[in-house]
Amino acid sequence: MRARLLLTVLLVILAGCAGAPLRGTGDLGVVIERESGRLQIVDTSQRRRLGQVAGLGDLSHASVVYARDGRYAYVFGRDGGLSKVDLLRQRIDKRILQAGNSIGGAISQDGRFVAAQNYTPGGVKVFDAATLAPVADIPTAYGDGRLSKVVGLADAPGNRFVFSLFDAGEIWVADLSDPTKPQLSKFKNIGKQPYDGLVTPNGRYYLAGLFGEDGLALLDLWHPERGVARILDGYGHGEEKLPVYKMPHLRGWAIAGGLAYLPAVGRHEVLVVETQHWREVARISVAGQPVFAIARPDGRQVWVNFAFPDNGKVEVIDSETQQVVHTLQPGRAVLHLEFTPRGEAVWISSRDDNKVVVYDTNSFAPLAELPAANPSGIFFTNRAGKTGF
Q1: In whole angstroms, what is the distance from residue 70 CA to residue 83 CA?
Q2: Total-model pTM
Q3: How many Cα atoms occupy the beta-carbon half-sphere of 317 within 13 Å?
Q4: Cβ(186)–Cβ(227) under 8 Å?
């Protein structure tokens, strides 16, 4: 009997040793494979794929936020799907269809709530981050009662969510201190067709870009009683705006040395703005219409990708000289780029060449190339500790 018991114990120990080793999540991330409804789980230290998770629905405009511990990725799909993915077990933990058309979301400061912004039918829905059970439904009615599309949803300190109403031209702040009774603050007439928004890394300011007119709307979240200010009014005044082939994205924006670098709608320029008084101080001519302008974590560089027909290029701006210092051609249809947590490397997706290319950010030398089916967004787990991501 003792021998049998000892054998059983040894078998259990051996089975445990043969299992997956324990590991942290700080160097993990995901790459969206937009056409196949899958994501890749990647290791940024070894620059390799660890696995794939399928069954995530329409990922044509997918975005991702992370739980506080970096283990779970919340994937927002174009079909209204919200999926909670376990990175360590490489599987879907929970999936719901919460709307007809969704383009992103956010997670609350304390990590308890996940909010989805919806195009169809409009509005914001809030869910328990652990179970994806519904917590709050915030319809965005305006005018004659129609619901506005929601864009630019971001988390803010105090368990607040800030978002813009594309159709109504408004910014709303939802305070979820009591999640059963969200407190709404509404700021109207902020400008025509806000298309995206962001919260500054310190959580103080919310900026909404405007598609219907030149300029941005600025809300001071420390002093919301001051209302919404307009900045960069008429930055394209007197000049013909080019056809817009892809909307710029403000999320993942660049702040370096007290300056913000913002993509200009319908122009081949990056606007440089000082962040004390929010005044334009320079413009940088670039190769095309910028989509993302993202700063390396140390602020030394700003990397820019572009809309069609220049979407095979990436330009690097030196933040000290404010000059383009390098141009890369990672592949056709560059859709996204993401820096490793300390910025020694950048991962760039090339949708039409079915690959992700990793570059050294000092030498610009390629470090690795990973196959991926029509990759788009790249999201690393260090986002879990950042406001507005």
Answers
A1: 15
A2: 0.92
A3: 32
A4: no
